[in-house]
Specification:
With about 270 residues, the protein is an alpha/beta fold. The chain has 2 domains: about 120 residues, HAD superfamily/HAD-like (Rossmann fold), CATH 3.40.50.1000; about 110 residues, Rossmann fold (3-Layer(aba) Sandwich). Strands 5-4-1-13-14-15 form a 6-stranded parallel β-sheet, sandwiched between helices. A 5-stranded parallel β-sheet has the order 7-6-8-9-12, with helices on both faces. The radius of gyration is 18 Å and the shape is globular. The two termini are about 15 Å apart. The chain binds magnesium ion. Magnesium ion binds next to loops.
Length: about 270
Amino acid sequence: MRDTSMALKGISALLLDMDGVLYSGDRTIDGAADAVERFRSEGKKLLFITNNSASTREKYARKLARMGIRTSVRSIITSGYATAVYLKEHSPGARIHVVGGKGLKFELRRAGLTLVSGEEVETATHVVAGLDQKIKYDKIADGLRALLAGAEFVATNLDPTYPSEKGLLPGAGAIVGALRGCSGREPDVVIGKPSPHIINMAMSFLRTNPGETAIIGDRIDTDIEAGRRAGLRTILVLSGACTEEDLRRAKNAGASPDFVFESITEVTG
Ligand SMILES: [Mg+2]
C-alpha cells in the first residue's frame, strides 16, 4: 500500500460503490455525505454504482437524498440499468425473458427493449437473470425453456449474497445459479462488477479514462477486482463487507487494493 495522502492525486473522476461505502442497509455511514460534498468541491466527477438490479435508479437517488447525499438519477448506475444500456447497444432487437425483479424489468422496458414471458418464452433471444426476491419454481422453469431454446444467457451480476439487517441474504448469484444448475450453461455475459462492462460504461458516461479514475468500494472480489481489470486506481474502505481475512487473502494472491481506508471520510489527497 502506498502513502495514503496520495490516494486521490491525479484523480479527476470517482466511481463510488454505495452499500458499505455510503450506507449500510438503511444506516448512513458517518460523514459520507460530507465526504461526497468534499469530492465535489474539489471538482471531481462522481458516479454512483451498485450491482443491485432490484431497484430503479430513481429509488437510489431518493435513498441518497434521504441520507443528505445530493445526486441526480443520471449519476447512478445499477447493474439493471447497465444491462439495459448494454443490450440496447449490442442487441436493440432483442426479445428478452427476465428472471429478475421489478427494477430490472423497468430499466429494460425504459430502454425500449421488448420483454417476453408466458407462452412466448421460447422465442426469447436473451434470458436476463438478476436478483429476484419473489423467485418461484415456475420462473426458473420458464428461464430454462428459453435457455434450452437457445437464448443468450445474460447475468446482471454474480454476487452470491448481499448484506441486510437480517444478515446475509441470497444475491443475484443464487438466481443465476438456479438457471445454471438446470440448464448446464454458464452466463454468456456478466454486466455487473467484477466485470469491467459496468466500469467501462461509467467511464464513458463521465468521459474519463482509467488513468485519472478511481473506484472506492468495500468488496475486494467485486469493486476492487472490477477496478483492477479496468485499469483504475482501487481504493478499499473497511466500513462494509471486507474482513481482515479477505484483505490478507488478497495480499497473498497479489491482488491488494492500491489504498485502504477505514471509511470514505478518510479518503483524501
Ligand atoms: Mg458495496
